[in-house]
Amino acid sequence: MHPYAYGSTVEAEGTEPLAYFERRLASMEVLLGSIGDQPMGIVRLSIPTFVTERHKCMLTGMYVRAAARGTGLASGLVDAVVERARGRVILIELSVVTTNERARRLYERHGFEIYGIDPCALKHGDLYFDEYQMTRFLERPPGWTAPKPPSAAWR
Fold this sequence. Notes:
Elements: H1 10-13, H2 18-26, E1 28-35, E2 38-46, E3 56-64, H3 73-85, E4 91-97, H4 101-109, E5 113-124, E6 127-137
Parallel strand pairs: 3-4
Antiparallel strand pairs: 1-2, 2-3, 4-6, 5-6
C-alpha cells in the first residue's frame, strides 16, 4: 500500500528463493505487534556484523496496518525496539521518507532526531524520494560531542 516508503518492491522480493529470506532473517530481530489475536504491525531491529559498527542498530521495515493506526501500536513497536536495543548498543538509526510526516513525528516523540537528509534515497519508476536520517542515543559516549552542522554557505 505504501511502496514509496520502502527500499524494495513486492516484484523484486517475490523473485527471491526462500533461502534468501532465511539468511536475511538470521541477521535481524523481527517484532510483531498485535491487537487481540490479529497481527497488525511489524518492525525490524538489525545490528551490523562489522565489529566497528556493532555499537549501533537500525530500526527498519516499520509498518502498521491502517486499521491499527492511532491505537498506540506503532508507539509500542518503537518502544519495543528501544528496549531490545538498550544495553546492547548506544544508538538506534532509522530512515524515513521526508513526505511521511506522521512517521517522522512518531519517531521524534520517541527521542529520534534528524541528523541529515539522503537526497534521492529511493526511486520508484521515474519518482525519487528523499529520506531523513534519524538517530536516538541510548547513552552518550564519554567525551563525545555532537558535530556542528555545516553552514548553508557550503553549498
